[in-house]
């Protein structure tokens, strides 16, 4: 019973965090101010792209219940990331195909991690091991 409640809380939290996370990613990809330039100087740009889309796709996977809807959402996130890369060229930032590759890899890995979390929270063998 506690596992189901925990899974419900995780799903609800993921649902409420998704849209603010999208806004943060869009700002990070399109903003051209000192704070974004400083973050990019401190961290490898491709890692930032990977982490951003890993988080978004993990949240989507946790929030949605149907595997088919998660697949559609993952493909949509990859297309959304590609569109943002194109828009970057219009706002004075550099478009980069390797950024889109990092985005796509982040989506794939984040989706897999989201499914792993769901599996762990709903696994009956995990619950049986903890009781024993």
Radius of gyration from CA coordinates: 17 Å
Helix and strand content put the structural class at mainly alpha
Mean pLDDT: 86
CA-to-CA gap between the ends?
Answer: 17 Å
Query: What is the overall number of helices?
Result: 6
The profile of the biggest β sheet is: none
How much of the polypeptide forms β-strand, as a percent range?
under 5%
Low-pLDDT segments:
none
What is the 3D form?
A: elongated
Number of strands: 0
Query: What fraction, in percent, of the residue positions are helical?
Result: over 70%
Could you spell the SSE succession in H and E letters? HHHHHH
Overall domain count:
1
What is this structure's SSE topology?
Blueprint: H1 2-30, H2 34-42, H3 45-63, H4 67-90, H5 97-122, H6 124-131
Helix pairs in contact: 1-3, 3-4, 3-5, 4-5
Write structural notes for this entry.
The longest helix has 29 residues. This protein has one domain. It has six helices and no strands. With 132 residues, the protein is mainly alpha-helical. Helix 1 packs antiparallel against helix 3, helix 3 packs parallel to helix 5 and helix 4 runs antiparallel to helix 5. The mean pLDDT is 86. Helix content is 87%, strand content 0%.
